[in-house]
Design brief:
alpha+beta; two-stranded antiparallel ribbon; 18 strands; globular; DUF620
């Protein structure tokens, strides 16, 4: 990972420390090192749409830049369903007078806590930092188009799967205080929580707050924060067993409470459900796979509604011991985004994937105070409009929306789509709940 940017104005000048380290591959793949560094100056600014893009994926998605916006909106900074209470009390509570499914889940969580390092090690962590690299790609897109009497499907596949490289940095001080900076192919997305409000900021949209109480970043539960993972599944139930990545696993299921779903809904957008599954190895006790799925209902004209369903599946591996705690250093996430309602010709499906690798992890960061997690000054609290509730990109500029949304065959305007902004996998605000 590149952490320093050369001084291009003075050869003898000091190098600049990058806010977000950049993967080495970005510079190996490009010719002309000086040119690459000069391009860094425009990285944190919105990129103009490539008007020359014309074929296949570029034509469908409206250009490479829009495709990256979709990837970052859905995969960049999704949140988990519910807030996680921070405490130092024993994670495992009494299992008496509880249903067998709940009792089994608590026992499995207890084994998980022991496997990652134990109660004492987890309770000793007050803050953490992690830095790594990611690779995002769109693997498949399909959508219906045409009238009721003339139905057909448009299907595009990105066969090369080159993907977009990037780097990320995350900071956390207890589950409710966290921040993320992610840079991919010249685009930077920032997100965070100060314990009172969760927010996100992108080059193509103003800073905006997430509806409902602040929730932890999903990336922390992908092996970076065992304490939050244990607390999240402490109230789950065991629903069976499954073999994942050649590991026999117990399956724990956690449903978001109706009150939490209502807090994230508004008059135009309803979060119907949000469920998380954890697959814990019977051999090692570690979390092997994390899945979550949520369904979003958007009001449409007439009596029909539009539905967006987002399914995320993360395979977690490469556990290493850091200060006595087992931390996952690599993994892969697959995302499936479905749209349906208002007839079969309006259905669409998009598949995306992310591969990540953690380069550095450290705990109990000195000097990390609440001031490090303050939201941006231009934060705009979410309005009671659907424009900030669905995930991926804002629907105020119809020309920049992905094909599946802006296609005339769908017969829905940007206002009906509400915006596609995924903060929850897509659920966020303007980018929040697809």
């Amino acid at each position: 990972m590149k952490t320093l940017c050369p001084n291009l104005d003075r050869e003898d000048g000091l190098e600049t420390v990058l806010e977000v380290p950049i993967p080495e591959e970005i510079f190996i793949q490009k010719s002309g090192t000086t040119k690459v560094w000069k391009n860094m100056k425009s990285w944190m600014k919105p990129n103009a749409e490539n008007k020359s893009s014309s074929a296949s994926m570029s034509a469908v998605f409206g250009g490479k830049n829009t495709e990256i916006q979709l990837l970052l909106g859905v995969v960049g900074a999704p949140l988990i369903p519910s807030p996680i209470i921070s405490d130092n009390h024993p994670i495992t509570r009494s299992i008496k007078d509880q249903k067998i499914e709940a009792s089994m889940a608590k026992y499995i969580v207890k084994q998980y806590v022991a496997a990652v390092g134990g109660e004492r090690a987890l309770n000793s962590v007050d803050s953490m930092y992690a830095m790594g690299q990611v690779k995002l790609a769109t693997s498949e897109f399909s959508a219906g188009e045409g009238s009721v009497t003339n139905k057909k499907m448009v299907k595009v596949k990105n066969l090369e799967m080159k993907g977009e490289m990037g780097g990320f940095v995350v900071w956390q001080k207890r589950p409710e205080l966290w921040c993320l900076e992610l840079v991919v192919s010249g685009y930077k997305i920032s997100a965070g929580s100060d314990g009172k409000v969760a927010w996100r900021q992108t080059p193509w949209h103003h800073s905006h707050a997430s509806r409902g109480p602040p929730r932890p970043l999903r990336r922390f539960l992908q092996g970076l924060d065992p304490r939050s993972t244990a607390n999240l599944f402490s109230n789950s139930i065991c629903i069976g067993e499954k073999t994942v990545d050649n590991e026999d696993c117990f399956i724990l299921k956690m449903e978001a409470e109706s009150s939490a779903l209502r807090a994230r809904s508004n008059s135009n957008v309803e979060i119907v459900r949000h469920t998380v599954w954890g697959y814990f190895s019977q051999r090692t006790g570690l979390l092997v796979q994390l899945e979550d799925s949520h369904l979003l209902k958007l009001k449409s004209s007439g009596n029909e509604s539009i539905y967006w369903e987002t399914n995320m599946e993360s395979l977690i591996h490469d556990y290493r011991t850091v200060d006595g705690i087992q931390i996952a250093h690599a993994g892969k996430t697959w995302v499936s985004l479905y749209r349906f309602g208002e007839g079969p010709e309006t259905r669409s499906k998009t598949r995306m994937e992310e591969v990540w690798q953690v380069e550095e992890v450290d705990f109990n960061i000195k000097g990390l105070t609440i001031d490090c997690f303050l939201p941006p000054s231009d934060l705009k609290m979410e309005q009671e409009k659907g424009e900030e509730e669905c995930g991926g990109m804002v629907a105020t500029n119809n020309a920049k929306l992905p094909y599946k949304i802006r296609s005339a065959s769908f017969r829905i305007s940007a206002s009906k789509v509400a915006a596609i902004n995924m903060e929850d996998s897509c659920t966020s605000e303007s980018d929040e709940d697809l």
